[in-house]
Amino acid sequence: MTDTQWLRKIEALRPGDACEFHYPARAEWRRGTVRVNGLDGWWTIFDETEQKIVSGIDIENVRLPDQVEAWPR
User: Cβ distance 46 to 36 under 8 Å?
Assistant: First the structure.
């Protein structure tokens, strides 16, 4: 069964919450921590892999950990 509330769950993420994200030019999802929830603007996320802060992420590039139904391709 697919979760039909996936977008609301992404929108509800707050600073300090775990998330996954990807850079627009990369396909793989990376683990991170929300720093700024930009909703319809830019998000800022701490990249757990590279141990750095990444800004300018669109909501279409953010999801909850293991949230496979988000942003179907």
Answer: no
Interatomic CA distance for residues 24 and 28, integer angstroms: 10
Question: Over 60: is that where the pLDDT of 2 sits?
Answer: no
Select the CATH number that applies to the domain covering 6-63 from these four: 3.40.50.720, 3.40.50.80, 1.20.140.150, 2.30.30.140.
2.30.30.140
Looking only at the bridges linking them, the beta strands covering 30-36 and 18-21 are antiparallel
Whole-prediction pTM? 0.87
Task: Tell me how far apart the alpha carbons of residues 34 and 68 are, in angstroms, rounded to a whole number.
Answer: 18
